[in-house]
Amino acid sequence: MLSTRLASRIAADGPIPFDEFMAACLYDEAGGYFTAGPLRSVAAGDFLTSPEVSPWFGTMLGRFALGVRRRLGRPGRFRVVEVAAGSGSLLRSLRRELPEGAQIDAIETSAAARRALRGLLGDDRVHSRMDDLPPRFDGVVIANELMDNLPVAVAVRAGSGWEERWVGHDADGFHLVAAPCRPAVARWCDRHAGVVPDDGIVEVQLAAGEWLRAALGRLGRGAVVVIDYGGTAEELAGRRAEGTLRTYRGHHLGPDPLLEPGANDITVDVDFGALVAVAEDAGAVTELTTQAAFLEDLGLRDEIERLRRRERELAASGETMGRLQVRSEATDAETLLHPRGLGDFRVLVARKG
Ligand SMILES: C[S@@+](CC[C@H](N)C(=O)[O-])C[C@H]1O[C@@H](n2cnc3c(N)ncnc32)[C@H](O)[C@@H]1O
Question: Which of 16, 112, 338, 350 could form a disulfide bond with 284, CB atoms 3.0-4.6 angstroms apart?
Fold first, then answer.
């Protein structure tokens, strides 16, 4: 069992950094929540994501990809890559917007998700790592709700410096222990964490930055689109007393992240300020906005109004079933824009070329 293996490792070598613990909980080959478990982002799973709520999410991203392709002068080779593609719900509606024969790839760490995606895209379009893609391509890379799962170190403000929290283990189970701050973690905090009160908790998102750097490194011309919950350091300032580390299970907040390794979705609020800095350091031009503003710019509000008009027409003609279907389509699409829900997610667009 993963918890037994982690406990033995800690007994032999001492406490491990929180990011190593989180990486094992989510990505361990034999016991990781994503790698070894069933498909997670579905109604029967632990959380519901935008593409699972409404097909209009993928449709809008398809229109975004078309816009990028147009701006690049419709290059012959243009690739759309979704990383963390889950059940494939986003790509299913996105690809209807793209021309016949468009190249679409999915990257997934979960074997269950890769099985679902192969049914949609074919075997040779579904990969477990970004390294399986060509070293350079033009196109659009999309990551919806990936970054919040990438392993974080946990740092705590101590005077003018930082301490880390590592994971130890004893007869009572896993617990956090204070440890000196590794230099890369302290550098990240000094650059990105903003003003943090004494004992304030910062989730240090080095892995998210590395992912974005690698994605932009592969992109010749085009855009990387990162969508997730979170904000800038200023927006996260109010959460430092408790930190944002949490788990989800069965669509609700789950137990302490140290309990039941491999059984829970461990997640944090994404620091979008740090990601903007990484993208700009890599030479990209960035835009940071909310999901509501991003989707409205692509025309979702107009589509919803069109659906509402259609609903009224169907009501007037007494077509109850049709009216209910259109009504639920419009309501689901509105959920994507809700200002205190999915609409408040952040969208980072990092463009190259
Ligand atoms: C919260 S779900 C989101 C799924 C999908 N993007 C959606 O919006 O429905 C996170 C997904 O990311 C996958 N995942 C997590 N880390 C990954 C990584 N480093 N590379 C590729 N996929 C990853 C998981 O297997 C899971 O399917």
Answer: 350
